[in-house]
């Protein structure tokens, strides 16, 4: 196959410390190559270095881009001038970033941002570029593209923002697309849609794709070849079928064997006979929204996010709530935590929320939460001791000395000790990896001895190996402490691994619920069948 990009002996260092060690790989024209590995393996920084987008990086080696536009037929991306490189970025090599909400400019409509690329690289006039931007949004499957082109990034759903990012990347019909975790934060059905879209556009434009991901299901479905990175080194490379069916390197085998495994024990008979730790009947949550046009001056309408939900969680049980973005599952979790006003009946440990701080404080010890992204949910200004011990201080439990002992015990429970991390209590969240930060978040929730944990997408931002470790930790803690979990997720595999029962939500309504076997192995509702089919298709 005709070579498009050839990387030889790529080394990346910061302040003399090397983090990528002599990486070699090729991408042929029209080929789909997946670069996989855990966080910190060097895959993203390798891709970014091809366009010299890593500040203060010391680069060496050769990254040859072959093409008809260069007189000698070849350019070294690591040594050409910045001016020449600006002509390559966006026009010949484009990039889809992992999180479109942070990659898109929040101050400009998405149509203007796409049009800007066309004005800079294709010398289009303003009106022509705007019309082309609308067409690109239509090509990527954005509904009502003319209206969405006038929308700001925060006004689009996650899937629409990702499609807008793809439209921007494809504006100049690049020959190589770098896609950095393009589906990580999306629901299972949206992941399949975005994957199918990339596949269709790749064939339509005849471009090559370098896919950076830790999602092995995505690699198996999308890529032609796969290259595996561990700690800055390329440890294995080959056709997807060959690598997945007969991995040669131990690290590759470890990644492939990291699918979540079910380790759920039945709810003890003694607990099954007790009142549920959470019970809701006819639960309804609504938000005020402005009326369109002049009617907005005279009142507001309401948007019903959860409508008439009935559910119960026994002691020692995990109830998994699954659905796409906008289905109401996170709103349900916030209502359970007493953070949103709700109508209907909702009781935690036999008591209801009063929405009065002093009266609700004892109940807040009973139910705790672990959020999706520990980096944003843990205060960057507090040390580990302050973060984990905060609950004890709020609830007036233990003296300072006793509090420190309990903090250390909670950290040891989640696998973090002073032996591993000297001066552990004085460290800050940024000094830990993603999986370690999630363990800190779990320790913070556990230290007040709750009965119910609300787990809001607790592993969606983690690598497959770290995800398996965190799920194993949660399963062990449930067995040892008799904890109940309200597990909010869009990942059907996580539900299979963790839950006793499943509740499926769509457009704010509960469309199906039952045991894991009943709902996932023999789904009755068409929407549930769609979710399960999408998970199997990955």
Question: Layout of SSEs?
Answer:
Layout lengths: L2 E12 L2 E12 L3 E5 L6 H8 L7 E9 L7 E3 L5 H7 L4 E4 L3 H4 L6 H13 L3 H14 L5 H5 L8 H12 L6 E5 L7 H18 L2 E6 L2 H7 L2 E6 L2 E7 H6 L4 H7 L12 H4 L5 E13 L9 E14 L4 E5 L6 H8 L6 E6 L8 H10 E4 L3 H4 L6 H11 L5 H14 L20 H13 L5 E5 L7 H18 L2 E6 L2 H7 L2 E6 L2 E7 H6 L4 H12 L1
Parallel strand pairs: 3-8, 3-9, 6-7, 7-8, 13-17, 13-18, 15-16, 16-17
Antiparallel strand pairs: 1-2, 1-4, 4-5, 9-10, 11-12, 11-14, 18-19
Helix pairs in contact: 4-5, 4-7, 5-7, 7-8, 16-17, 16-18, 17-18, 18-19
Quick description:
39% of the residues lie in helices and 25% in strands.
Structure, described:
39% of the residues lie in helices and 25% in strands. It is α/β, with parallel strands linked by helices and 538 residues long. Helix 5 packs across helix 7, helix 7 (158-169) packs parallel to helix 8 and helix 18 packs parallel to helix 19.
CATH topology of the largest domain: Rossmann fold
Count of spatially separate domains: 3
Structural class: alpha/beta
CATH homologous group name of the largest domain = P-loop containing nucleotide triphosphate hydrolases
Strand content: 25-35%
Task: Give the biggest sheet.
Answer: 6 strands, mixed
What is the CATH class name of the largest domain? Alpha Beta
For the record, the CATH architecture of the largest domain stands as 3-Layer(aba) Sandwich
Helix content: 25-40%
Total beta strand runs: 19
Q: Could you report the average pLDDT, rounded to the nearest whole number?
A: 87
Radius of gyration: 25 Å
Global morphology: globular
């Amino acid at each position: 196959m005709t070579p498009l990009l050839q990387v030889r002996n790529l080394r990346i260092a910061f302040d003399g410390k090397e983090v990528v060690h002599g990486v070699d790989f090729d991408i042929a024209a029209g080929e789909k190559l997946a670069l996989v590995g855990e966080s910190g393996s060097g895959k993203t920084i390798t891709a970014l270095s091809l366009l010299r987008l890593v500040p203060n990086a010391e680069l060496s080696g050769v990254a040859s881009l072959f093409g008809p536009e260069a007189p000698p037929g070849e350019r070294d991306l690591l040594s050409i001038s910045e001016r020449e490189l600006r002509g390559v970025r966006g026009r010949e090599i484009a990039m889809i970033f992992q999180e479109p909400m942070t990659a898109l400019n929040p101050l400009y409509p998405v149509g203007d941002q796409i049009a800007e690329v066309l004005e800079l690289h294709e010398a289009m006039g303003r009106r022509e570029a705007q019309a082309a931007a609308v067409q690109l949004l239509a090509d990527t499957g954005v509904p009502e593209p003319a209206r969405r082109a006038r929308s700001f990034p925060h006004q689009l759903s996650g899937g629409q923002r990702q499609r807008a990012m793809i439209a921007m990347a494809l504006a100049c019909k690049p020959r190589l697309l770098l896609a950095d975790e393009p589906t990580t934060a999306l629901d299972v059905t949206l992941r399949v849609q975005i994957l199918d879209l990339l596949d269709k556009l790749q064939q339509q434009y005849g471009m090559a794709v370098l896919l950076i991901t830790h999602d092995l299901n995505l690699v198996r479905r999308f890529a032609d070849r796969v290259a595996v990175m561990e700690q800055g080194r390329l440890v294995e490379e080959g056709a997807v079928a060959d690598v997945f069916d007969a991995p040669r390197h131990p690290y590759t085998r470890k990644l492939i064997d990291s699918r979540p495994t079910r380790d759920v024990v039945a709810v003890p008979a003694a607990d099954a006979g007790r009142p549920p730790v959470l019970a809701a009947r006819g639960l309804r949550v609504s938000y005020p929204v402005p009326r369109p046009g002049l009617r907005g001056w005279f009142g507001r309408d309401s948007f019903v996010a959860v409508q008439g939900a009935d559910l119960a969680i026994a002691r020692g049980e995990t109830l998994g709530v699954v659905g796409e973005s906008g289905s109401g599952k996170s709103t349900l979790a916030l209502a359970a935590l007493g953070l949103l006003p709700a109508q209907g009946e909702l009781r935690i440990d036999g008591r209801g929320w009063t929405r009065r701080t002093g009266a609700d404080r004892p109940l807040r010890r009973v139910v705790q939460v672990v959020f999706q992204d520990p980096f944003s949910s843990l205060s960057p200004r507090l040390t580990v001791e302050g973060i984990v011990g905060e609950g004890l201080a709020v609830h007036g439990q233990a003296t300072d000395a006793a509090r420190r002992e309990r903090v250390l015990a909670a950290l040891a429970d989640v696998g973090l000790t002073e032996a591993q991390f000297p001066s552990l209590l004085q460290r800050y969240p940024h000094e830990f990896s993603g999986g370690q930060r999630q363990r800190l978040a779990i320790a913070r929730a556990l230290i007040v001895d709750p009965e119910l944990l609300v787990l809001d997408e607790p592993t969606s931002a983690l690598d497959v190996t770290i995800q398996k470790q965190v799920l194993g930790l949660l399963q062990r803690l449930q067995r040892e402490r008799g904890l109940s979990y309200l597990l909010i997720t869009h990942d059907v595999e996580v539900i299979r691994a963790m839950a006793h029962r499943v509740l499926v939500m769509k457009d704010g309504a509960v469309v199906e619920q039952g045991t894991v076997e009943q709902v996932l192995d023999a789904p009755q509702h068409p929407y549930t069948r769609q979710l399960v089919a999408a998970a199997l298709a990955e």
